[in-house]
Design brief:
Blueprint: H1 35-40, E1 42-48, H2 52-63, E2 66-68, E3 77-83, E4 86-92, H3 100-107, E5 111-117, E6 124-129, E7 132-138, E8 145-146, H4 154-159, H5 176-202, E9 215-219, H6 221-227
Antiparallel strand pairs: 1-4, 1-5, 2-9, 3-4, 3-9, 5-6, 6-7, 7-8
Length: 236
Protein backbone atom coordinates (compact mmCIF):
# COMPACT_ATOMS: atom_id res chain seq x y z
CA UNK A 1 0.00 0.00 0.00
CA UNK A 2 1.39 3.37 -0.99
CA UNK A 3 1.91 5.91 1.75
CA UNK A 4 1.24 9.60 1.61
CA UNK A 5 3.55 11.71 -0.53
CA UNK A 6 3.98 15.24 0.72
CA UNK A 7 4.60 17.47 -2.26
CA UNK A 8 3.67 21.03 -3.10
CA UNK A 9 2.46 21.51 -6.67
CA UNK A 10 0.23 24.37 -7.67
CA UNK A 11 -2.90 24.30 -5.45
CA UNK A 12 -5.62 22.04 -6.88
CA UNK A 13 -9.11 23.43 -7.30
CA UNK A 14 -12.33 21.71 -6.26
CA UNK A 15 -15.39 22.47 -8.34
CA UNK A 16 -18.29 21.63 -6.03
CA UNK A 17 -21.56 20.52 -7.51
CA UNK A 18 -23.36 22.85 -5.15
CA UNK A 19 -25.24 20.34 -2.99
CA UNK A 20 -24.55 18.05 -0.06
CA UNK A 21 -23.28 14.66 -1.10
CA UNK A 22 -25.69 11.79 -0.61
CA UNK A 23 -24.95 8.34 -1.99
CA UNK A 24 -28.71 7.65 -2.02
CA UNK A 25 -28.92 9.93 -5.07
CA UNK A 26 -26.87 7.36 -6.99
CA UNK A 27 -28.87 4.29 -5.95
CA UNK A 28 -30.41 4.22 -9.43
CA UNK A 29 -27.10 2.77 -10.64
CA UNK A 30 -27.61 -0.27 -8.40
CA UNK A 31 -30.95 -1.22 -9.95
CA UNK A 32 -31.32 -4.54 -11.78
CA UNK A 33 -30.82 -3.01 -15.23
CA UNK A 34 -27.24 -2.09 -14.25
CA UNK A 35 -26.46 -5.36 -12.50
CA UNK A 36 -24.06 -6.38 -15.27
CA UNK A 37 -21.76 -3.48 -14.35
CA UNK A 38 -21.53 -4.64 -10.73
CA UNK A 39 -21.01 -8.29 -11.69
CA UNK A 40 -18.34 -7.68 -14.36
CA UNK A 41 -16.86 -4.46 -13.05
CA UNK A 42 -16.85 -0.93 -14.41
CA UNK A 43 -14.81 2.24 -14.67
CA UNK A 44 -16.33 5.73 -14.45
CA UNK A 45 -14.20 8.63 -15.68
CA UNK A 46 -15.33 12.25 -15.26
CA UNK A 47 -13.69 14.72 -17.66
CA UNK A 48 -14.45 18.39 -17.03
CA UNK A 49 -14.64 20.85 -19.89
CA UNK A 50 -14.34 18.41 -22.79
CA UNK A 51 -17.43 17.35 -24.79
CA UNK A 52 -17.98 13.73 -25.72
CA UNK A 53 -16.91 14.13 -29.35
CA UNK A 54 -13.58 15.62 -28.22
CA UNK A 55 -13.03 12.86 -25.67
CA UNK A 56 -13.76 10.21 -28.30
CA UNK A 57 -11.24 11.81 -30.66
CA UNK A 58 -8.55 11.98 -27.95
CA UNK A 59 -9.04 8.33 -27.07
CA UNK A 60 -8.84 7.35 -30.74
CA UNK A 61 -5.91 9.49 -31.89
CA UNK A 62 -3.79 9.55 -28.71
CA UNK A 63 -4.58 6.16 -27.20
CA UNK A 64 -5.59 4.02 -30.16
CA UNK A 65 -9.08 3.15 -28.97
CA UNK A 66 -11.41 2.00 -31.72
CA UNK A 67 -14.38 4.20 -32.52
CA UNK A 68 -17.67 2.30 -32.43
CA UNK A 69 -21.05 3.47 -33.69
CA UNK A 70 -23.24 1.94 -30.99
CA UNK A 71 -23.30 -0.26 -27.90
CA UNK A 72 -23.55 -3.70 -29.48
CA UNK A 73 -22.46 -5.64 -26.42
CA UNK A 74 -18.81 -5.82 -27.45
CA UNK A 75 -16.24 -6.46 -24.70
CA UNK A 76 -14.50 -3.48 -23.10
CA UNK A 77 -16.83 -1.03 -24.80
CA UNK A 78 -17.04 2.42 -23.22
CA UNK A 79 -19.91 4.85 -23.54
CA UNK A 80 -19.05 8.56 -23.48
CA UNK A 81 -21.94 10.72 -22.30
CA UNK A 82 -22.20 14.43 -23.03
CA UNK A 83 -23.19 16.13 -19.76
CA UNK A 84 -23.36 19.74 -18.67
CA UNK A 85 -19.78 20.91 -18.19
CA UNK A 86 -17.95 17.99 -19.80
CA UNK A 87 -18.17 14.23 -20.33
CA UNK A 88 -18.58 11.04 -18.32
CA UNK A 89 -17.15 7.75 -19.60
CA UNK A 90 -18.78 4.54 -18.40
CA UNK A 91 -16.92 1.38 -19.31
CA UNK A 92 -18.41 -2.04 -18.63
CA UNK A 93 -15.98 -4.76 -17.57
CA UNK A 94 -12.85 -2.64 -17.92
CA UNK A 95 -10.58 -0.16 -16.19
CA UNK A 96 -9.13 2.01 -18.97
CA UNK A 97 -9.53 5.23 -17.00
CA UNK A 98 -6.92 3.99 -14.53
CA UNK A 99 -4.29 3.63 -17.28
CA UNK A 100 -1.62 6.34 -17.21
CA UNK A 101 -1.82 7.26 -20.88
CA UNK A 102 -5.63 7.44 -20.80
CA UNK A 103 -5.98 9.53 -17.64
CA UNK A 104 -3.13 11.85 -18.58
CA UNK A 105 -4.34 12.42 -22.13
CA UNK A 106 -7.84 13.24 -20.91
CA UNK A 107 -6.77 15.41 -17.95
CA UNK A 108 -4.44 17.60 -20.00
CA UNK A 109 -5.46 21.21 -19.26
CA UNK A 110 -8.50 20.15 -17.23
CA UNK A 111 -9.77 18.17 -14.21
CA UNK A 112 -10.43 14.43 -14.21
CA UNK A 113 -11.76 12.05 -11.58
CA UNK A 114 -12.21 8.31 -11.86
CA UNK A 115 -13.80 5.52 -9.89
CA UNK A 116 -12.83 2.00 -10.91
CA UNK A 117 -14.65 -1.02 -9.50
CA UNK A 118 -12.83 -3.88 -11.25
CA UNK A 119 -13.93 -7.48 -11.65
CA UNK A 120 -10.65 -8.51 -9.99
CA UNK A 121 -8.72 -6.19 -7.72
CA UNK A 122 -9.41 -3.25 -5.45
CA UNK A 123 -11.96 -0.48 -6.07
CA UNK A 124 -10.08 2.82 -6.33
CA UNK A 125 -10.52 6.57 -6.68
CA UNK A 126 -8.19 9.06 -8.35
CA UNK A 127 -8.25 12.76 -9.12
CA UNK A 128 -5.96 14.57 -11.59
CA UNK A 129 -5.45 18.14 -12.73
CA UNK A 130 -3.51 18.91 -15.89
CA UNK A 131 -2.00 15.37 -15.92
CA UNK A 132 -0.85 15.65 -12.26
CA UNK A 133 -2.14 12.92 -9.92
CA UNK A 134 -3.48 14.98 -7.01
CA UNK A 135 -5.00 12.23 -4.86
CA UNK A 136 -5.70 8.49 -5.07
CA UNK A 137 -6.75 5.75 -2.68
CA UNK A 138 -8.27 2.29 -2.42
CA UNK A 139 -11.86 2.48 -1.24
CA UNK A 140 -11.36 -0.12 1.48
CA UNK A 141 -8.32 1.82 2.81
CA UNK A 142 -9.14 5.52 2.33
CA UNK A 143 -6.91 6.48 5.27
CA UNK A 144 -3.92 5.68 3.04
CA UNK A 145 -3.82 8.13 0.16
CA UNK A 146 -1.11 9.13 -2.27
CA UNK A 147 -0.49 11.81 -4.88
CA UNK A 148 0.86 15.35 -4.87
CA UNK A 149 -1.90 16.50 -2.47
CA UNK A 150 -3.20 13.34 -0.75
CA UNK A 151 -5.53 15.21 1.62
CA UNK A 152 -7.25 17.06 -1.21
CA UNK A 153 -10.59 15.25 -0.72
CA UNK A 154 -10.19 14.55 3.01
CA UNK A 155 -13.07 16.81 4.03
CA UNK A 156 -15.40 15.03 1.60
CA UNK A 157 -14.60 11.46 2.64
CA UNK A 158 -16.88 11.57 5.68
CA UNK A 159 -19.79 13.40 4.06
CA UNK A 160 -19.64 10.93 1.15
CA UNK A 161 -19.76 7.92 3.48
CA UNK A 162 -16.31 6.63 2.53
CA UNK A 163 -14.95 7.32 6.01
CA UNK A 164 -15.13 5.85 8.53
CA UNK A 165 -14.89 2.43 6.89
CA UNK A 166 -17.85 0.38 8.11
CA UNK A 167 -17.04 -3.22 8.97
CA UNK A 168 -19.50 -5.87 10.21
CA UNK A 169 -18.91 -7.28 13.67
CA UNK A 170 -17.78 -10.74 12.61
CA UNK A 171 -17.52 -11.81 16.25
CA UNK A 172 -21.18 -11.13 16.90
CA UNK A 173 -23.88 -13.78 17.06
CA UNK A 174 -25.67 -12.43 13.99
CA UNK A 175 -26.33 -14.70 11.04
CA UNK A 176 -23.18 -15.02 8.89
CA UNK A 177 -25.16 -14.52 5.68
CA UNK A 178 -26.60 -11.27 7.01
CA UNK A 179 -23.10 -10.09 7.94
CA UNK A 180 -21.85 -10.89 4.45
CA UNK A 181 -24.75 -8.98 2.91
CA UNK A 182 -23.99 -6.03 5.19
CA UNK A 183 -20.33 -6.16 4.17
CA UNK A 184 -21.32 -6.15 0.49
CA UNK A 185 -23.71 -3.22 1.00
CA UNK A 186 -20.99 -1.27 2.79
CA UNK A 187 -18.66 -1.86 -0.17
CA UNK A 188 -21.32 -0.67 -2.63
CA UNK A 189 -21.94 2.43 -0.51
CA UNK A 190 -18.23 3.26 -0.59
CA UNK A 191 -18.26 3.08 -4.40
CA UNK A 192 -21.33 5.33 -4.56
CA UNK A 193 -19.64 7.71 -2.13
CA UNK A 194 -16.54 7.82 -4.30
CA UNK A 195 -18.74 8.65 -7.29
CA UNK A 196 -20.19 11.59 -5.37
CA UNK A 197 -16.66 12.83 -4.60
CA UNK A 198 -15.80 12.57 -8.31
CA UNK A 199 -18.89 14.64 -9.07
CA UNK A 200 -17.87 17.39 -6.68
CA UNK A 201 -14.26 17.39 -7.86
CA UNK A 202 -15.26 17.90 -11.49
CA UNK A 203 -18.66 19.58 -11.24
CA UNK A 204 -20.20 16.83 -13.41
CA UNK A 205 -23.39 15.03 -12.36
CA UNK A 206 -23.72 11.26 -12.73
CA UNK A 207 -27.52 11.23 -12.80
CA UNK A 208 -30.01 8.86 -14.37
CA UNK A 209 -30.80 11.52 -16.97
CA UNK A 210 -27.41 11.01 -18.62
CA UNK A 211 -28.77 7.93 -20.41
CA UNK A 212 -30.82 10.38 -22.53
CA UNK A 213 -27.79 12.50 -23.45
CA UNK A 214 -25.74 12.37 -26.64
CA UNK A 215 -23.53 9.28 -26.57
CA UNK A 216 -20.28 8.25 -28.24
CA UNK A 217 -18.58 4.84 -28.14
CA UNK A 218 -15.04 3.47 -28.13
CA UNK A 219 -13.55 0.02 -27.56
CA UNK A 220 -10.44 -0.54 -25.43
CA UNK A 221 -10.07 -4.24 -26.31
CA UNK A 222 -6.90 -3.76 -28.39
CA UNK A 223 -5.41 -1.49 -25.71
CA UNK A 224 -5.75 -4.18 -23.08
CA UNK A 225 -4.14 -6.73 -25.36
CA UNK A 226 -1.02 -4.57 -25.69
CA UNK A 227 -0.74 -3.67 -21.98
CA UNK A 228 -1.42 -7.05 -20.37
CA UNK A 229 1.13 -7.87 -17.68
CA UNK A 230 2.58 -4.34 -17.65
CA UNK A 231 1.82 -2.77 -14.25
CA UNK A 232 3.78 0.36 -15.20
CA UNK A 233 0.94 1.19 -17.59
CA UNK A 234 -1.45 1.81 -14.74
CA UNK A 235 -1.91 4.93 -12.67
CA UNK A 236 -3.49 3.24 -9.63
Amino acid sequence: MATQIVATPRPPTMKHAGKQMDSQERQWFTSDEYNDYWVNGFCLTFVAGKPGSHVQEILHTSIGALIESADEGKPFLATIFDVTGGSIILERGGYAGSMRRVSRALSDDTRLALVVNPFIGHPKFAYLENTDLICAFRLEDPEFRWGSSPDFVLSDLTSAGVLPVQEPDWESEEDELELEQLDLQNAVNRVLGAISIAERATGLLFGRQLINSTQYFVSFQDIYSSTAGKPEEYLI
